[in-house]
Design a protein that fits this description.
Length: about 350
Amino acid sequence: MSDRVPRVGALPSGPRDAITDVSGVTVGHCTLAEGAVQTGVTVIRPHAGDLYHDRVPAAAAVLNGFGKSIGLMQLEELGVIETPIALTNTFGVPAVAAAQIRAALAVNPGIGRELPTVNPLVFECNDGHLNDMARMVVAEAHYRQAHDAADVAVPEGAVGAGRGMSSFGVKGGIGTASRRVEAGGRMVTVGTLVLANFGRPAQLRICGRALGPVLAERLEDPGTVAKPEKGSIILIAGTDAPLDARQLRRLALRAGAGLARTGSVFGHGSGDIALAFSTAYTLPQDPGTPMPAVAMLHDAHLDPLFEAVADGIEQAILNALWRAETVTGRNGHRRRALAEMLPDWQALAPGAMS
């Protein structure tokens, strides 16, 4: 399969072109791939320490709320992350949340007793076309495996939580990217990661070119082509720029610009949720520890970050599509790789390669 992914925009990438170009961020996967079980867990760690004690600022933007995530209410209220960010399938959310709570308790046994409770943070997409979700195979051990595997190298495509996901009638999954920009007199990194499980075939756009009609014709599957939008996508952005929760919500909202460029219209049955966090500082859980005095980036300097997150999200989606292999799962259902369906995409959309 060709790994020549279309290049989005003119902004430079970090050395890995991944969310892990943001210093301290790591990502791990646990992939379950056997017969009708095609699913997994992906974990994003904003830093290697104890997130319960040293929380990071964050905010979310719900573009369309057809989702079953956990932890968003407290995140919106307090503007902090206090567990790693976990991604899985819809029915795997309770087990993964329980695993996050147990992991926090193992390090801080006073949680829920003399210490405040912990807010697990789990996002989901429905991988039921390829994966038999009703088996509910995702367990706490799978979260621990993904957590412990976290590294700066990030496999993409049909891995981790992305194993059973579909996009535009072909194989979706995990994609990541990064962009570097100057903002307020300093160079900052914006890293992105997506769990892509959205889009109707005819809607697909690649670097501004409408290739959906070609893809829909080649799929030769009227059922897939005609189905309404019932997918989802989780959009994650991390940055080393010093932003507060209000600014991070603005950054998360701009992830929708990158999503829209690929052809999404945030359909009625789609759960499209974006989260942004900053690693520039941490916020202590302990009320006896002074809050940090941080000079935030001025709002007037946010535009480069907005461009970076839009380009990075679009790039991460394309990376997910290009790097996912064909997968056969539940009841023989099959999702072909986009690279197999559009091997001649450059001839159809000349000039999109860097």
